[in-house]
Structures are given as C-alpha cells and as structure tokens.
Amino acid sequence: MKRREPVQLRELQMVRDLEDGDEAKAKGNELFKAGDLSAALAHYEKGVQLLRQQEQVPVVAVATLLSNAALCHLKLKWPDRAKKNASMAIAAVRQAEDGAFDQSKLFYRRALACEQLKDFGTAVDDMARALQQAKKTGLPLAEQHRLKAEVERLKKLRASAEESAEKRRREQENERTAEVQRLQGEKLEASKKSEASSVPIALNSDYLQEQDFSHWAKRQVQEAVKGVTHACASGGHIEVIELDESKSKIQAAITTKKGTRALYYEMDVHCTWKGKAAKGLASGDGPHEMQGLIRVYNIAHDTKFQLGGDENTSYMYQLGWDHRKTGPWVEDLRTEAAELFDKISERVDGVVRELRKK
Fold it and tell me: What are the Activator of Hsp90 ATPase AHSA1-like N-terminal domain coordinates in residue numbering (predicted)?
C-alpha cells in the first residue's frame, strides 16, 4: 500500500500565497516548534522554490532550508527524502565555496537518514564527516564529543549488521544442506524398508532430485545488471559497467521431492559503476568522471527488496568510491549512486522470476 505523502492539500493551501523565501522559513520554524511537521516541511520547500527564482540565488539560505526539510523528513520517517535534501544542501554549500558554513548538521542529518535506510557504512562515513566539520568550525567540545559518540554507535551498528548478515548466510546454507540430507535420509530409510519387505517396493528414481542453476543464474545476473543507468537530478549520469565476478557469489538450486519443487538461492552481487558529473557542478579541467562499487547482498529465497527494511529479511547494499576525488560533483555522484540499489534489485528479482519457471 502506497504511503500517504507528508504534504497534503491543507499544507499546500497554507503556502499558496507566499512570495518571500525568508517569510516562508520564519513561518516554517514557528510550525516546526509547534510540532506541525508537515506544515513546516511545506513552508521550507516553498522557501527553496522562491529563493531559487531570484536572479542571484542565495545558496547558503537555500542550503539551510534544505537542511530543515531534511530534519522534517527524518522525523516523519521519510529517510530517502531526508538523505536527498541533505545531499542537495551539501552540494549547494560546496558549489558556493563557503568555507565558513557549518556543514556538521548536514552530514549529521544525512547520517541519520542512512541509518534509517540500514546503510550503516555510509552512515558511519557521514557521521565522521560531521565530526570533522564540527572540529573545523570550532563547535563546543561537548558537541564534538557527542558526535564522536555517534560515530562509535554507528560503527557498532555496522558491525552488528555485517555479523547478522553473515550469520544468516551461514544459517541459510545450513538449512539448505539439512533439507537435502533429510530428503536423502528418507530415501535411504524407504530403501531399507523395501529390502526388508517380502513384497518389493518400487522406488521412483525421481523421488529426490537437485538441479544446480548457479552458473545459469550468474550469467543471467551478469547480463541483467550491465547497463543499468540512473539520471541524476543535477544532470549527471551513472551506469553499471560490469558485474565483478571475482567478488560476487551467486548460488541457486531447485530441489524436487515427489514432484514438489523448492527453489533455494543466495546472492551477493558486486557491481562496478561509472559516473559522469553534470556540467553545472564540475569546475576546472575535465573529465569529471569517477568509478565506484555497489554491493547488493542478503539476497535469498526468504528475503525481499524493501527500502529501509530489516537486515534479517531485506536486501542490503554498500557503496564504494574513490575517496581521493573531492568536490561538489563527487558528492553528487556518490549520493545519486545509491539509487542503483533499487534498480539492480529489480533486475535481480527478474532473474529470480525466471528461475522459478525452470
């Protein structure tokens, strides 16, 4: 069932006649303090729209409103939108080259959004950046200590998620092995009874069969993910260029018992992507391109794709990129690359559907 949008007709009517971005921000702050998050969000988004219509766009003011919108989305449990708001704010500040602007809140809020999305690796990275920004701008030591504690908290969550995923992988493998052994044991027991009986019992040679489709599935996934593309809101472009076969693990088998089929599969998909930055974000000599990695894992017969889902029942992903590259265009590509998660998952699910037809 589709979720109800956080901003409805009531909120849209509240901002319909606003013509000043600063007024929208001030009213949004009042509504936020009053606990009307949806109305506050509508005002912040309207403020961004109004400020961007000005001949000279006040980038820092836009970034502040985007940061406020991110906070509203976080509290309203829309982490994907909170992450996008925070990323747009970070890109805006970097484009303005305003070194005095405190970006710690932006990275902090994006880290919390990533935490809600179960992307603990990126959450740790962003929280560490928030701490770095806090030190750079000279925030009070109490705030720096708080952010440091948050980094450690997220590191523990990341380690726990990785441990849970590995434990679940082992359990799934053990379950599959146990099921095969159980079926083989039943066949052996039936054979013994047949030998002991005065009336021979004819065993069907098809009583237990297991077909390995791992090679087929790997080839299909390889073809499915290659060429997956994402158009960035900024105008940039990201494309999956190949499946990393050396790191990817794809296993699939169909077990048949007395005509009843059961599909077992487990996939850990590693892909290489290439991004090309939008001209508006790139500065200096080009080309402004970078490569990165995306790992989609915890794909199995008893999990499914679900943004922000539980790590025990949902697909998970991790992103990697060249940390030596810096600038607004890098930040934009890094953030937008996360959109490959649902597109790759959709392609993999297509392969699984074909497997079920085997």
Answer: 210-305
Residue-wise pLDDT tens digits, 139-198: 999 999 999 999 999 999 999 888 888 888 788 777 777 766 666 665 556 555 555 444
Give the domain CATH number at 215.
3.15.10.20
* 213, 114: one domain: no
Joined together, the tokens standing for residue 145 give 């200590």
Total number of domains constituting the chain: 2
Phi, psi (rounded to 5 degrees) for 336: -70, -25
Does residue 36 lie in a domain region? yes
Quote the mean pLDDT of the chain. Answer: 85
The answer to whether position 162 is within a domain reads: no
Give the structural domain span for 218.
209-357
Residues 135 and 234 in one domain: no
Token output for 310? 């539980």
Using CA atoms, how far apart are residues 191 and 184, in angstroms rounded to an integer?
A: 11
If we measure between CA atoms, which residue out of 252, 247, 236, 248 comes closest to residue 336?
236
Structure-token match 């005509």, residue found: 259
Query: What was the pLDDT predicted at 112?
Result: 96
The CATH number covering residue 85 comes to 1.25.40.10
In a domain, 196, yes or no: no
- Cα–chain center distance at 278: 22
- Residue 193: what pLDDT? 57
Residues 6+ apart with CB under 8 A from 87: 110, 331, 332, 335
Residue 286: its H or E element: none
Decide if 24 contacts 43 (C-beta within 8 A): yes
62/52 Cα distance (integer angstroms): 8
Q: 68 CB contacts (<8 Å, ≥6 apart)? A: 25, 28, 29, 32, 40, 44
- Look at residues 139, 160, 176 and tell me which one is the last residue of a structural domain: 139
Residue 269 phi, psi dihedral angles, 5° rounding: -100, 120
- Inside any domain, residue 3: no
